[in-house]
Amino acid sequence: MHTLKKTSKNAQNSQNFQSRRQFLRSALTGALSAFSAPALLAAESFKYVCPMHPQIVRDHPGTCPICGMTLVKQKIEASTDAYPAVSAPTTDAQSGEGLQQTLAIHTAKVVRDTLWKYIKTYGVVKPDETRVVHIHPFASGWVSQLQVREEGAKVKKGQLLYRIYSPEMVSAQQDLLLAKQNVKQLGKKAQPLLDSARTRLELLGLSAKTIRQIERQGKVINKVPVYAPQSGVVGQLKVQPGMYVQPSLEMMSITDLSKVWVEAQILSQQQSWVAVGKTTEVSMPKMPQMTQESAIDYLYPELNPKTKTLRARMTVENHNLAYPINAPVDVTIYGGPKRNVLIVPLSAVIDDGSEKRVVKVVAPGRYQPVKVVTGMQSGDLVEIQSGLQEGDEIVISGQFLLDSESQIKANLLRLSQPKSSAKSSKTANDFDSIK
Question: Coil, strand, or helix at residue 388?
Fold first, then answer.
């Protein structure tokens, strides 16, 4: 009997302890909730912020100390997102128009489709360096009868450029004539000397035509003619009649412009799939009828140190010299399709240099920026690798204003977060562990 009374008393004491524990917990939780973040935000539901400098936040009206603009009253709504959702109220909930229409907010659906790899860029016409001939004298002498007097002059292959008097060339011609006489007297025994004399004249720059003329006439040509080795346009003209020239001097250059190079600039985000052999189209901006198909011949192994662009080179026909040197041209580079990818308009992506965001429609009149990872870009479309799903509705016009509003709200929430909220949460958790 005594044991039963003792057991009943112990059970009653345990029940009373549990009741007191529950009461204390309820009282403490209620007291701590008065200092929690939602309660404080309800008490301070408005702040004043600078439209240009979101870090300037005040509890009262005033002006921004940085730019002097009047602070705007901003309502604070509790949110745990890095980019809180924002609202664009409408005057007519049925039509969905009003402020959204005033702010030019337009939306589009995220779709799955095929992206065609192509780049529209610009290029510059350059001379084909493999078609440039540099004219040097093969012996020292004096220039006479210069036929080319200006840069840009057109010459044809075999056309006379100038004549030169050179004692070394005259001596070599005399040796040729002497060797010719020895062959007549000694026969085949003197033939090696004749061949050697001809080779020497060839090395001094005399054409085969001029050498045959010397042998046929049997006399020296004092002023040796020099002919154009190819057709083209004269450049870098550095000689005038009567000048004394040496082999080290480049007298002029002749560039064959029947074919020219086009050097196109490729941006860094487009360089991954550009390769030699890719098909291209080249056209003059004001003459689209001159569009010409080509292919990438060469990719230069270095980037522009300032723009970080890659140079791609292609060769095009230059009929009637229609492509002037250094002229700007439009270039399109094709690379094939990339199928079944999520795509959005490029204008919808906000790129601040550190991350990329898209403003997503989460409910009628409610918008929230979300981080995305983009892939291939094709014209005004871009691939979305993560962050969105097919069928999502996104903002394609007016998204910058909504994104700025979301960042202002995020700053306000961070500045309004009370330090005591973290302590109150920790104290409640500690009390919950009491046995």
Answer: coil
Measured between alpha carbons, how far is 363 from 386 in angstroms, rounded to an integer?
Answer: 21
Q: Are residues 203 and 262 in the same domain?
A: no
- Give 399-422 pLDDT, tens digit per residue: 777 777 677 667 666 665 555 444
Boundary of a domain, candidates 329, 363, 390: 329
Q: Is the dihedral of CA 228, 229, 235, 236 positive or negative?
A: negative
How crowded is residue 122: how many other Cβ atoms within 10 Å of its Cβ? 13
Phi, psi of 32 (to 5 degrees): -70, -30
Domain residues for 195? 132-255
Q: Are 380 and 346 in contact (CB under 8 A)?
A: yes
* Residue 75 within a domain: no
Domain boundary among 267, 295, 329: 329
294, 316 contact by CB (below 8 A): yes
Residue 294: phi and psi, rounded to 5, are -150, -165
- For residue 104, is pLDDT > 60? yes
Domain count, the chain: 2
Q: In a 3-state reduction of DSSP, which class is residue 230?
A: coil
Is 262 within the bounds of a domain? yes
Give the three-class secondary structure for 301: strand
Instruction: Report H helices in 187-240.
Output: 191-203, 208-217
Give yes or no: residues 185 and 161 share one domain: yes
Same domain, 319 and 219: no
For 47-71, give one letter per residue: b (16+ CB within 10 A) or e: bbbbbeebebbeeeeeebeeeeeeb
163 and 226 fall within a common domain: yes
Task: Give the C-alpha distances (Å, rounded to integers) separating 132 from 100, 127, 164, 233, 262.
Answer: 62, 8, 22, 9, 16
Q: Looking at the structure, tell me whether residues 250 and 272 fall in a common domain.
A: no
124 vs 327: CA distance, rounded Å: 6
SS3 at position 332: strand
C-beta of residue 375 within 8 angstroms of C-beta of residue 356: no
Tell whether 236 and 140 lie within a shared domain.
yes
Q: State the pLDDT at residue 422.
A: 42
* pLDDT digit string, tens, across residues 219-269: 999 999 999 999 999 999 999 999 999 999 999 999 999 999 999 999 887
Distance CA 68, CA 392 (A): 40
CATH code of the domain in which 229 resides: 2.40.50.100
The whole model's pTM is what? 0.58
CA–CA gap between residue 202 and residue 15 (Å, rounded): 122
